[in-house]
Amino acid sequence: MSNFEIFEAYQRLLKNEQLSTPLVAILALTEMIEQSRAGTMFQLVKELKDGAGELNSKSPNSISLNAGCELFIEFITLFPHASASFEDLKKELIRQGRQYAEEALTYRAKIAELAFDFIKDDSVILTHSYSRVVMQTLLMAHKRKRISVFVTEARPRGLGIKTAEELQAVGIPCSVVLDSAVAYAIEKVDFVLVGSEAVVESGGLINAVGSNQMAIIAKAANKPFYALAESYKFHRLFPLSQYDLPTQKTHLLSFTQPRQPGTNPTDSESAKITQEQIAQNNPDVDYTRSRAKTAIAVTDGPQDRFLYELARGVEFLFRLGTSLKLPSPALFTAATWFHRFYLRYSMPEFHRQDVAASCIFLATKTEECGRKLRDVAKVYHSKAMGIDVMDIPSDSKDVDALQADILLVEEYLLEALCFDLTVESPHAHLVDLFSVAPDDTIVQDYAWTIAHDSYRTPLCILFKPQIIAAACYILAQCIVDGSNSLSLDARISNSAPSASLPTPPRIASSPDVSRLAVEYFAFNERDLCTLGDALSILLEFYSAQDETAYPYLASVVSIRPPSSISSIRRGFYTSFTQEGAGSHRHPVTTISERTPSSSHGGNTPIADTLV
């Protein structure tokens, strides 16, 4: 092992204000590889882990640092050893580490572009402390929109003052708010926007201390609370409370020793409480539970391409599960897990087909419809290669490799799910709704089909299953009613439209079929707004599909989106034939190659709904 001082390298790299802590950690470990005398991968990984441990022990706030170290060491461990010599392999690892850090610097700009559509003109925004990604987002918004910003002072470090000074320097109206005055100022803001130190496995947020109370106040005031996070800040932590964070020290919030009676505290300067003493006795970060946040924006690439790849992955999952003759609940469970997995990991890290196969294999165990691992791998191989299962040799090495891949990804899948395997499907709520609805099999078939299609979108991780079920049923009603259909606004309004003639006294009014789903699930005003978002996402999804794959597509895309959707939600889907699609790194898929498709009316088994 060399005499390389990793903490000195870390401190030197940290002086670059453009580099966040995880990237500094990755570059420091990269320099460690460059100076390492290790002759094997085992020795190199051990040195890197020791170096990460040294950084952790010497850093006052090691959470985001650990996220970068874990990410890079995991990359090193899984990197294919195809080089001619170990020295060549080390050179390639150094190149990859520096290239990743360079590419990661572009993530803030990508997040700023995504967040731009969330910011309306004349928005008043509340932010906290100092965040590079938030600053870049606000600066981009200022170039094309009018915004005003409240920023908390973020005592005792006072980083909010730095934020205010930089914003005022570029002409953004800004006012510093006392940390204790957030509740006073919250009614003046449109939404809260903060950065992040880390995003943990539960979906919770670790950020500068004070973020949690801001989220609680924002939730009480019904104000959106958004966090911006680069993907390298995802951390393998599962805190249950503030005191489960790695930064928790026993001396935090400790009581000072009482003075002896009769002493005069003004007689000694040492008796005065300083800002530094307050800072040392208080935490630097806190933990915000996922239910307190409205959303987290993360990007590694174009959103429309990512959503398209998600849809293709779900299609492959359905094909695989259907060939294995799995019951529908197992398929829906696996599809939900598939979406939850990619909340944590990216497509370049794990291929969608490997993840789909692992979701299917795990679902066969939890849904009590067990299938042998070998059978899952053989069907996977047949679908991926387009060959018949019967033509695959019993001792196929390819199947052996796929078995290993499925088991490996299953470990990551369980971690991504935090071992929370419970899934609630919108189909179960549709069945309940059908039991009280008029016996209209056409509407029910359409609703069932749209519910299948919903798994090709992120709806299952964005909304409650009751919201999705209602959205599917309402769209089905609109399709069947055709040009005579009520608007979506009328179907999801707070109250039913008034009739032209009042109902005579002592005569019960007839049930309003157009509002059956809304009234059955007893949605409140907030639920109705969420329902509008779900409907708009489904309409966006269908508008980006091909009519040859969806026979009922023309009826769906002719439906006018509801006006009650969230005004700060950007569009999810764009057509891949639109200008600008060529900027994607992947080849653009033609309309005829698009997937997935669905069966008309839901009368066909799922196997026939997929290409």
TrEMBL record:
Subcellular location, record wording: Cytoplasm, Cytosol
Region named Disordered: 579-611
Main localization, broad class: cytoplasm
UniProt GO molecular function: guanyl-nucleotide exchange factor activity; translation initiation factor activity
Residue span, Cyclin-like domain: 315-415, 428-543
InterPro entries in UniProt: Cyclin-like_dom, Cyclin-like_sf, Cyclin_N, eIF2B_alpha/beta/delta, elF-2B_alpha_N, IF-2B-related, IF_2B-like_C, NagB/RpiA_transferase-like
Record keywords, A-Z: Cyclin, Cytoplasm, Initiation factor, Protein biosynthesis
Polar residues: bias regions: 589-602
GO CC, alphabetical: cytosol; eukaryotic translation initiation factor 2B complex
Highest rank taxon of the organism: Eukaryota
Subunit and interaction comment: Component of the translation initiation factor 2B (eIF2B) complex which is a heterodecamer of two sets of five different subunits: alpha, beta, gamma, delta and epsilon. Subunits alpha, beta and delta comprise a regulatory subcomplex and subunits epsilon and gamma comprise a catalytic subcomplex. Within the complex, the hexameric regulatory complex resides at the center, with the two heterodimeric catalytic subcomplexes bound on opposite sides.
Family: Belongs to the eIF-2B alpha/beta/delta subunits family. Belongs to the cyclin family.
Protein name, UniProt field: Translation initiation factor eIF2B subunit alpha
